[in-house]
Amino acid sequence: MLKQGDYIYYADSGVCRIDTIGTLDFVDNEEPYYSMSVLHSPFHEQLYVKVSSGADRIRPLLNETQAQQLIDQIDRIPSIPGVTERNKERLYQNMIAEGNCKNCLKVIRTINRRNHERKSRGLSPLSAEQKYLSKATALASEELSHALDVAYEHMEKWLGEILC
Fold first, then answer.
1. Per-residue pLDDT for 148 more than 90?
2. pTM of the prediction?
3. Fold (CATH) for 64-162
């Protein structure tokens, strides 16, 4: 069972801190909820998740060793195979929604490579892909920076440079 003050990864919201666990005044039931703050939300986003039904969307954060292992193999993380104009958004969305940091890194690498190819042909990046690139970069940066105790901004910049 999670406890107050724990840091977790929630669905595609990213790194969250559990502020309280208990019933909510504004809900007409006695079920306990996790009240969580999204760490890197520009809007100070607060989430309320039923303890009984939220477990499938909550996972522990990577620890320092796991994060370092992921960083050590970052050069070997492949692009997503089989990305086409027709399936790219669904693929990106599904991989990000899985809440797996390595999948976010694959999305970043894939989109950065596609952007590089487009740029070499004199074309600009596609706005739809930029949306997924931003989301995947934010989620991976949050988790890795938290696990490695590195500033979020530094991790975000580094991932953008290394995953080309």
1. yes
2. 0.91
3. Methane Monooxygenase Hydroxylase; Chain G, domain 1 (1.20.58)
